[in-house]
Amino acid sequence: MATLTVAIFSSDRDQLEHLQELVNATAAARTVLADMLEDQELLLRKIAALQPQVVLVDLAPGNPAAALKLIETLRAEFPAVAVFASGETSKRQMIVEAMRRGACEFLDRPPATTALLEAFSRLGAARRRGGEEGRGKVITVLNAKGGCGATTVAVNIAVALNEAHGGAVLVDMAPIGHSALHLNARPVFGFVDAIQNAHRLDSALLDGFITKCSCGLALLAGSPVPVPLKVTEDDLGRVFDLLIAHYKYVVVDASSRLDMPVRVVGNLSDSVLMVAETDIIALLWNAARVQSFLGESGREKVHLVLNRFRRTPEFSDADAEAATDAKILWKIPSQYFVVGTAIDRGTPVALSKNSEIARSFRGLADAVAGQQVRPPRGLLHSEAASRIRAFSMP
After folding, report:
1. CATH dotted code for 135-392
2. Burial class (CB in 10 A: 0-12, 13-18, 19+), 373
3. Percentage, residues of the chain above pLDDT 90
4. 265: how many CB neighbours lie within 10 A of its CB?
5. 0.70 cut: is pTM over it?
6. From CA 300, how far away is CA 27, in angstroms rounded?
7. Residue intervals in the chain for CATH 3.40.50.300
8. In angstroms, what CA-CA distances link 335 with 105, 252, 295, 350, 392?
9. Which fold is adopted by the domain 4-132?
10. Please, are residues 286 and 145 in contact by the beta-carbon 8 Å criterion?
């Protein structure tokens, strides 16, 4: 890893000197500027002249306002500079505020040398893959109604994204998590642990909660039993800030869950995939339930995925899109035996090289990754427009 150049700012001179010693001791970075947090205009001119790759800002206990303001200004004035914050990790609100202002890493005060090294390593990896151009994409997968296959779709999208594009993590937010079964994984920790420890969560702790599956996919597993969970928007924000800072793709299996956590995650998602089958109940439930649940702010993100798709005389593409007020993104063919066997074996069907459904999942993964890929839009042979209108009327 090339040596990174670092500027350090603190309102505490002793802490400033200590941080400089810690940074230089990593051998992965060198300090090019260490200055007191006083005249911010002067500091900004120095940053413009020296162009450090990283700015480490110390959040002094009791008076972090100037440091937080500097973080916000740095992100606005120097978007290419990585901003690290160092503060008390026991202060949950401080972590959330620093990340919201623009810090991409939050380290303890003072940070351990290993924590600094890990942060520098993640930054180097992100830059090598072009991560400085933007944070990771979040793709949330929801059922139109129970049993439509959201977990199967989420697992196989995540596997295909990781195979083709790298850097994918699957987050299982289902009330009872089944993704580990699909992946033949034996997680010890998971999503519930991350949420319960959100107040002290950092990249290293989050990594300890993640299971590395045999196929290479990272999994933040769901609970195998229902667990009462007290969660706030700040907790969710902290967890997902860390996830999207360190993964290119964050695939969320929300299954049939519709509550505050899923609304929050849906609103921060780049895409929401509603998984439905081609029947009136699924499509209309989808329209009434999911669209209203996400609200106007999420409407443009919603795409329809038709699972277990078969041609039918009852629906056309236009009928399905009219019923759900969402565009069809993809149609996954009905191959129940192939999918069922893959689930039983714990080997996602997307890993198969020859089956039609494996190709379909890989195509869907490319589509959500932003590739210009569309499946053939074969008709569903419609006569359902009048039936849908009649069914919808009060």
Report:
1. 3.40.50.300
2. middle
3. 30
4. 22
5. no
6. 47
7. 135-392
8. 44, 23, 34, 13, 31
9. Rossmann fold (3.40.50)
10. yes
